[in-house]
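Q: Convert this sequence to structure tokens.
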Amino acid sequence: MMLLAAGLTATPILLGSPTAMADELVHREVNQTVQDYGDLIESQYTNPNASGEATGTEKELARLNGVESDQSESSGLTVSNVDVYTTVNSYSTSAEGTSVLSDVTVKRRLTPEPGTTIVIAGEQRDHLDSEYTETHLLELQGTATGGYEVADDTIVNTDGSYSKPDPNPNEEAASTTTSSAAGGDTRFTRPAVYTARTARTYAAGTANRAGLDYIKAMQYAELWTDAAHKDKMNPKYPDYGDNNCTNFVSQAIEAGGLKTTAATVLNRNHEDVWTGFIWGTPKMSTLTWHNVEANYTYMSKHSNAFTVENNVQRIGGGGLVYADWQNDGKYDHAMIVVGYIGRGSKTGPVVCGKSGNTHDIPLADITVKHRGMKWKGLQWKP
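A:
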């Protein structure tokens, strides 16, 4: 990551000089190549044979990072209105080629097929407007006719590690749960808490003994990841830039009614305190508020609002999921479950989160894009 940033540092040059014009040409070609690649990902959903001038490698990468990583069909959903947007964050060039860091945003409308139900924040929906942004490391190589083509595509995780989509998504169950007994397709396993309820029963009794109303927590998560807020954080709280995932989860849980504790700069790293505002400091939070591992420890041991759920595919609304991208025992990312997709007696969670913005994404679509990773979770406690 630092290497890419360093690659952007250049000796000052005079505008209009041959070097300046050459650099501007590279800049335009890099941006155009990334834009064309985003268009190619989008086209694979609707017209996979219309690849234009794309090479076989580009087409394969676009399919693997788009439609082939989309688990909607197996979840009983129809995909429509697909839009893919790309933004070049930085790039560096060398004798080996050009490396590009790009944000790729995929927006889809997911409509339930007959026999499939979508419930979000306690309400049955007739569709999901699902959107997520991920950072990709794209390796470009020159072509014989000039310009660039995409030679490789790797997802950059929130901790700086890398992931590849699973080319065999039906085999991902064992690597996406902390439960060794989760063999087979666990995507629609019935969560223990609430999936047997109808949407009408959500209105009453949605706060537990700890005061956490999971409907209000989900509503907060829905609001602050929607189209109007996808690039924003609630200004009331601290902002940790590219590391807002757990900060956002804590905000949603507080919005749901879980009481914060008092904390000072002296005990802000203790596992039994949790607040977004340390007394006497401007917008400083406790470690348990913004750190993934510390948050899991507080919520599981001290909040009295959750129970541990080893199979994340069973987690119901208001529950929390934590990701270990590298499967090294260190958890790096957190999200909140905002609902479920149900097909008969089986269900799969839908999540929201930040860094990058994630709005109404079936968890199955995330697990398949990060092969070899591991999850753990917390279930809302009645």
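Residues 31 and 88 are 7 Å apart (CA to CA).
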